[in-house]
Prior knowledge:
The chain is α/β, with parallel strands linked by helices. The chain contains five helices and six strands; from the N terminus they run E-E-H-E-E-H-E-H-E-H-H.
Amino acid sequence: MAAFVSAPVLTLSHPVTSVDLPGGRLDAATVLSLRVPVTEAVADGPVLVLLDVSGVEGVSPSGVAGLLDLLRVVRARGGDLRLFGASTALRHAFTALGLDAVARIYGGHDEARGLLASRAS
């Protein structure tokens, strides 16, 4: 199993932007539709972008590459892009490509935001 690279530690004081990924296939066109809202969200500095991937039923290589590019853009600004939702297709792609070492797919919105960890303490 690949070693997991943890997401940046962000406090809840960071702005949070939630984006719902359209259902269906994660491909270049889908990621392109996310580019503007994600880059606008990080324009003023670090932000936590939560991306609901629960509707993803298929994944193309260009979709994965585009998602990684969005992750790079957000992390370069000091923020983080966190994926959440039950998408078997995306989880399978991440595992097969070893991407679970780069990013994690959280079970739900609260877990992605880090709220479950703070409630447990």
